[in-house]
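Appendix B. One record, verbatim.
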Amino acid sequence: MDFDSLVKEYIREIVLEELAARTQVSSDPVMISLDEARRLMNVGRTSLYLIRKQKAVNGFPEVQLSEKKFLVDKGRLMRWIASQAAGASV
């Protein structure tokens, strides 16, 4: 191999390693169940029901997949919790 080929191969390896590092899939789920959301929020079932009932007003980040299946976007939930805490009066 000549020098140019060695440099190109070296750069190619670096780029592939960088792409692999940036595209690794997290084992942390993006969508979580309502029960998992309830535990993260540290609220009971009744409180979660009341929060969900008012989602048009409070913007609770649930997604309805079917008539009885709901999931919550974990990232949006964490931002929602922060926004609720920031807006709460002490």
